[in-house]
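Re: the 431-residue chain
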Amino acid sequence: MPCGKVTMLNRVMPCTRQVVVTNVQGYVWEILDQVGDDHLTHTLPALEQELEWVTDHRVTLTVVDREANGLELAQKYVQTDHFALLILLDSTASEGVLVGTPTFQKVFRLTGRWQPLAAQPGESLAPAVWVPEQEAADDPRVFWLVQDDDRHKLLAVYSLSQPVAECAPDVRALLRGRGARTAYRTRWPAIENVIREMVNGDNLNENYGYDYYPVPNRLRQRQQAEAQAQVNTTQTQLANTQRQLEAARVHLAQYEQAEATKQAGLAAARAERQAELQARQPADQPTRRVEQQLAQLDRQAEALARRLAQRSNKLQTNTLARLEARCAELQVTLAERQATSTQIDITQPMFQRNLEKDQIMANFQAALLNAHRWCCDHYFTGEWSRLELETATARIYRQRGRVAYADDRVDVTLAAFAYRPEQDLAEAACA
């Protein structure tokens, strides 16, 4: 369904994201409109709540067919009682890494055995977690890896928003064994193929033009919010670094003051010993002990001065220099980010298209698809029961005929088919 932004003459005209809700048999239950330029991480949990209200059916597991900021989305789901199954399409771990190599061992640690996938011969699946070096305290995800058994090449990485043991019982049962691969792939016949069939069916997508109306510039507002968040982060980092720098300077000053006090004490003690030495020499008294004490005081003073110089130099060249360089770097970064935030103009015009016609056409397409599926399930046999809507429209629904409406029934009479096999299928459907 349409999703994204259309830029036209410096005016951003966002589409809407149409969310198609189907059951496991492929019947369309509901079509919901969502603003197309909203971030998936922010809208998905709220969308699940809306679906629960519309369908009166509890949503426990959501399968997302792209990474979609997997960590951020997983952190969002940890705060709810819902769970998300993602695929890391953009991860370096999905680019053909060989299982068991040092590159693989730097990323994943297996927590179970490789299990063959019956539906995909030559492939197997195993649970895994991050290695301790990659693990983060705020990352709740666990993984399933799919490998090529012959080449031991990593084919796919599925991640769950939190450990299986913390999931609801029905989710744990669904993901047991090889369930992650099955859960990810079962969306194709019941969801993706349904949407493709609905769009490719009887063409109701004719564009007769759009009206549009002014709306707040959400794109610029979001960009400004993101830029301001970066400014706030840099300001916090700069304030913390400045506090550390001030604390280091205070610590150095206190240390130098303490050493100066010790130096003054040694100087006073030496002056006393020197006065005693000068008093003993004219009286012809022994001076050896006093001379030894003076030499010891001199050695202590030299050691104290040397330690003070070394410690001061270390603090100046290591701690203070590093913090001062970090402060200078953060000040430059802060000025750049503040300039970027200031340059974002949220008053730039923005218009949103009126997509009511699209919604009406989508509803008609869904009704046509449901009617076709009902005919396949209840009337058609053989080849006709497997026809997609587009093919059935060309071969059956555009056949000439009559429709008679009664109070309790609708009678459809089609003209004879030109080809005998088609006529036989039509007669079997009416039998």
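The longest strand covers residues 28-35.
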